[in-house]
Amino acid sequence: MNSSKHPLEKIINAPLIRKVIAIAAFIPMFSHASIADENFIQCKANLAERADNAGFSSYITQTVIGNITPLKRVIALDKKQPEFTQTFEQYIKARVTEYHVRVGKEKLKSHQALFDRLEEQYGIPRQYLVSFWGLETVFGKHKGKMSVLNALATLACDQRRSEFFTVELLNLFTLIENEQVSVEQLQGSWAGAMGHMQFMPSAFLKYAVDGDNDGKVDIWQSEVDALTTAAHYLNNIGWQSKERWGREVKLPDNFAFEQVAFDQYYSLEYFKKLGVQQTNSQALPDYDIQAELYLPSGYQGPAFLLYPNFNVIMKWNLSKSYALSVGILANKLVGAKGIEFIAKAESQAKPYSVAEMKNLQTQLNTLGFDTGEPDGIWGPKSRKAIRLFQLQHQLIADGYPNQALFLAVNSVIKVNKTQVTDNNQET
């Protein structure tokens, strides 16, 4: 894949890169010293000290940080992310809409020359760039109106992901200090993402490209800059130009779930031997690629084989539902039907709440199935713990928190309590 600079493109300048390196070198030394503090004034003082130690000017440490104010709504939104509160079907239907498909196809036509150049330069198929664009901001309609400075500072002062957002805030300070952006234009999402494609400051710093060659990178107003930066970013984080993101598949009725651990990769040949087929009931292709089986709604919903490019999409947004949305919308933009399972029938899987998931995680931990710190999120550790419990108790081992699992876990917990009570009475 050719990643050399196009003559019309200008990557971020050298002084800015030096500041990025300086911050990167600085982070490990201070990563243990979180700036998070419930007292926002104290948190700002911690942030100012951290910025001063990183070599920022008094304009940043005094003026910019001095004007930062907390946004309570940001914390509320952080706790109600749709990936954690919607079923997979609800999530997809709200994002891969007929509007997204129709306007996305129009963008493919109106920007044809640009996409021709970006595909040649970076090897990123145009439908993926348009898919990201549609999902992030509905093609620029909703770029966000929150103060990025205030949003990032609010999240940096919160304990949950303080270090991550502190680093993003330091990167934003670098953009300001190097005059790549002005404080006045810093509007974006509640999580600090900016512009047409919703780049975090770290991505802007490392991958920003002046695609329209006007001497600056403007990801808010210039669609060319935003799309070129997106292509450059995807190219650099590992996109394989000749491969797709994955595919929807059909599992046989007697699928051997015990033969597949989730969040692990196997060859397509291995899945063929287990009876996995394409949605049209044809055999999987004879292609040498590793794939991961993912069941977003358990065995009662659609099934997907995810290829390495899927993990590249997740570097943009660490959510499998989001990454599937990108892939599915990209497919529809070039004529595919979408998710065939959902088109034929609704998933029979019942939705669960964050509180129910958190309680389940606590129960599984008690029973010796490690889910990590209970957080209400159905992540890799929880999938593994659920699958191990299901295997031990002769349930369909799909790793999904379905009603049969909830009932079985409650039953085992109840039996264990009864046994403990009986043993205490005997002694």
Please write out the topology:
Layout lengths: L13 H17 L9 H14 L4 H9 L5 H7 L3 H4 L2 H8 L2 H13 L1 H11 L3 H12 L8 E2 H9 L5 H16 L9 E2 L12 H7 L15 H14 L9 E5 L15 E2 H6 L3 E2 L11 E5 L8 E4 L1 H9 L3 H14 L6 H5 L9 H13 L13 H13 L10 H24 L1
Antiparallel strand pairs: 1-2, 3-5, 3-7, 4-6, 6-7
Tell me the span between the first and last alpha carbons: 72 Å
Order of helices and strands: HHHHHHHHHEHHEHHEEHEEEHHHHHH
Instruction: Give the rounded overall mean pLDDT.
Output: 88
Derived structural class: mainly alpha
The stretches of 5 or more residues where confidence is low (pLDDT under 50) are 1-32
User: How many distinct domains?
Assistant: 3
Rg, Å, rounded = 24 Å
Textual characterization of the structure:
By secondary structure, this protein is mainly alpha-helical. The protein is built from 20 helices and seven strands. The strands form two sheets. Strands 4-6-7-3-5 form a five-stranded antiparallel sheet. It has a two-stranded antiparallel ribbon with strand order 1-2. Strand 6 and strand 7 form a beta hairpin.
Summarize the structure.
53% of the residues lie in helices and 5% in strands.
Key words describing this protein structure:
single chain; mainly alpha; Muramoyl-pentapeptide Carboxypeptidase, domain 1; 3 domains; 20 helices; 7 strands; globular; disordered N terminus
